[in-house]
Design a protein that fits this description.
Length: about 375
Amino acid sequence: MKQLRTQVGIVGAGPAGLLLAHLLHLEGIDSVVIENRSRQYVVERVRAGVLEQGTVDLMIGSGVGERLMREGMRHEGIYLAFGGVRHRIDMAELTGGRAITVYGQNEVVTDLIEVRLATGRPLFFETAEVSVHDSSIRFTYNHEPHELHCDFIAGCDGFHGICRQSIPAADLRIYEREYPFGWLGILAHAAPSSDELVYSLHERGFALFSMRSHAVTRLYLQCAPDEDINQWPDDRIWEELNTRLATSDGWKPNQGEIFQKGVTGMRSFVAEPMRHGRLFLAGDAAHIVPPTGAKGLNLAASDVRNLSLALAAYYKSGSEQQLDEYSDKCLRRIWKAQRFSWWMTSMLHRSPEANAFDQRRQLAELDYLTSSRAAMTSLAENYTGLP
Ligand code: APR
Ligand code: PHB
């Protein structure tokens, strides 16, 4: 077995693992990243696209924001649509200038892989049989077994990864909620017909208008969690999107060729604590939010920011205090994002269990939200990102 040694072994080359590797490199800390998929798969996987102000600041501040500054689309507001009317929430005005930036997770991952490879530090794609142990990670690469000895292991391997599962069940507390719906998402070659996102509640369910660039529109429809995508030819998708999104002022999304479509389920999930011995969980490995609050990628970024600072303090002074505080510190932010994501999801989706009372209450909530400055401010500060 080939023996390797590093300071921090990182499992997973999603946004969490790659950003952690980059932040550690800036602190002069050595790491090895182990990913079981190919580089192409990791880059092409279609995921989230909304970066909070803090995530943007972190990327720019750590020297990986050059393309983000050029190509990212800064949005100072969002629309909430219901009853055929769009209501704008001016997030920047309500929060003293905070905004979000639309920049696909694919682009974030592309940029992070590039800076990682430029450092010359190891990043293994297409590994197999990855397993984590007390102070080592075993895996095969090019059919050759490897053992990587490390001071710490960062479990950045997403919801279905092996790191969380390696922790004895008795040492973890799981908090979970599944929703009785999913999202059918598409990418279309169509110029966005609005400069800002539109979150819409319609009698037939939720729909979301988003974008990836000046030429690509991203759209979602609430559907069943196990919806069969084959029942959705393009014409049916456009008809349903227009029904749920079009407003009485004549606004609707521009249509174009659909070049990607898929269905995702929705859940809220938290595993506590985010540490077991030398293993630290970060990102989707420890928590999942429903996408309505656009928080998944941002939580991953703030976890690894905390972890990199705690590891840097340890290697500088030998103090484990920040490592000991890592889980609690992350969880305070995570639970607030969980609450916000749950709230946005329940406010904007039609639940099969809801009765007529629930539906009227939902509309009253949206009416209140879009007419109260206090309520809009609360949405704006959560959406652009809590400290
Ligand atoms: N060994 C090595 N790598 C693994 C293993 C394994 N056993 N299991 C999973 N991985 C890899 C996955 O292939 C993936 O590339 O770990 C990576 C985890 O990445 P993400 O799932 O993107 O999770 P994370 O980096 O925490 O980023 C969270 O992703 O799900 C979105 O919306 C979410 O934007 C959020 C972000
Ligand atoms: C996206 O553009 O993919 C997107 C935007 C906002 C969300 C979720 C996803 O709340």
